[in-house]
């Protein structure tokens, strides 16, 4: 089980009231929510391995070089060295170090790599997996990793993590008319304002799906631009042709990396907290006794 950790703690932050605070008044709603999310996932799914994948760089420079608008609207401050500062709610940012400390104390593997997003860590780990993989995320971009033959699916939270949309190839085909790899082509054609991807003007989700159904993949669509006998409308042909510079670079931006240089780590789900004294201290310091006990109990059961 691979967690898109930032996606989940953002959901926890907005799903758990900000009245949940530590004894000193510090909001800890995202921390409590994430620990409860993980406890519920462990309880319901009993994964052998569990990895909390982290955004060491939420807006990698190599993606921005290809498409400068990539996540540009979410930049709070540009930096000369290292990741730009992301626009984050004032009471969420201070909770991230607490989340990281709690994961480490429990012994839950936490993996982030400089220059890469959590999506890329997830893509690399998924590619290396020899057994079934469940990816837990609120980010549809990771639908591209769905593969029934290799037992790879996305669990998309609809309400907390108690209600999860199980995303497999059948669901993707019914909803979007594509398979996992086809979803990446669909996304780059239609664009994604939340990630600053412009897409091809005039090509929305339904048109993108129809083009992929007709021509197979992005390469087939590009070949159709040059084929006078293809059934592209004159407007589609013109817009796609004018978008060639974007289409040439967009796949590398949209597709998750599969070759991230991962550090050594132990993905095994612990049977109990790795550092019980530290877990107890964190629970006391931040007023998280209930969430800590629920997760500890889930690990032991």
Description of the molecule:
β7 (152-159) and β8 form a beta hairpin. The chain is an alpha/beta fold and 301 residues long. The protein is built from 13 helices and eight strands. The protein is elongated. Helices cover 46% and strands 10% of the residues. The strands form two sheets. The protein has a six-stranded mixed β-sheet, with helices on both faces. The two termini are 17 Å apart.
Could you give the topology of this structure?
Layout: E1 2-4, H1 5-15, H2 29-45, E2 51-53, H3 61-66, E3 75-77, E4 85-86, H4 95-106, E5 109-111, H5 118-128, E6 133-136, E7 152-159, E8 163-167, H6 169-176, H7 180-190, H8 205-215, H9 218-226, H10 234-242, H11 244-254, H12 276-286, H13 289-300
Parallel strand pairs: 1-2, 1-6, 2-5, 6-7
Antiparallel strand pairs: 3-4, 7-8
Shape: elongated
Percent in strands: 5-15%
Q: Structural class from helices and strands?
A: alpha/beta
- Helix-residue proportion: 40-55%
**Unreliable residue runs:** none
Q: How many strands, what sense, and barrel or not for the largest sheet?
A: 6 strands, mixed
User: Gap between N and C termini, in Å?
Assistant: 17 Å
Strand order of the largest sheet: 5-2-1-6-7-8
Radius of gyration equals 21 Å
**pLDDT averaged over residues:** 95
Order of helices and strands: EHHEHEEHEHEEEHHHHHHHH
Strand elements, count: 8
Instruction: Note the total helix count.
Output: 13
């Amino acid at each position: 089980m691979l967690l898109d950790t930032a996606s989940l703690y953002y959901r926890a932050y907005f799903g758990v009231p900000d009245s949940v605070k530590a004894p000193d008044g510090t909001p800890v709603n995202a921390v409590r929510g994430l620990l409860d999310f993980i406890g519920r996932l462990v309880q319901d799914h009993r994964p052998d391995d569990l990895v909390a994948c982290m955004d060491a760089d939420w807006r990698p420079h190599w993606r921005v070089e290809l498409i400068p608008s990539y996540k540009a609207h979410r930049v709070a401050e540009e930096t000369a060295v290292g990741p730009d500062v992301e626009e984050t709610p004032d009471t969420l940012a201070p909770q991230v170090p607490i989340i990281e400390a709690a994961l480490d104390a429990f012994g839950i593997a936490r993996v982030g790599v400089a220059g890469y997003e959590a999506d890329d860590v997830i893509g690399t780990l998924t590619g290396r997996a020899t057994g079934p993989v469940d990816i837990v995320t609120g980010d549809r971009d990771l639908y591209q990793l769905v593969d029934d033959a290799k037992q790879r699916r996305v669990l998309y939270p609809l309400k907390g993590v108690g209600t999860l949309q199980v995303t497999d190839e059948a669901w993707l085909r019914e909803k979007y008319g594509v398979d996992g790899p086809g979803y990446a082509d669909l996304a780059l054609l239609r664009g994604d304002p939340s990630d600053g991807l412009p897409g091809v003007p005039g090509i929305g989700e339904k048109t993108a799906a129809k083009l992929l159904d007709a021509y197979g993949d992005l390469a087939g669509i590009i070949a159709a631009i040059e084929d006078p006998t293809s059934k592209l409308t004159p407007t589609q042909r013109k817009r796609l042709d004018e978008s060639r510079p974007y289409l040439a670079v967009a796949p590398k931006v949209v597709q998750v990396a599969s070759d991230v240089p991962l550090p050594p780590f132990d993905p095994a789900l612990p049977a109990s907290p790795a550092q019980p004294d530290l877990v107890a201290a964190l629970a006391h310091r931040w007023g998280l006794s209930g969430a800590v006990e629920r997760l500890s109990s889930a690990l032991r059961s």
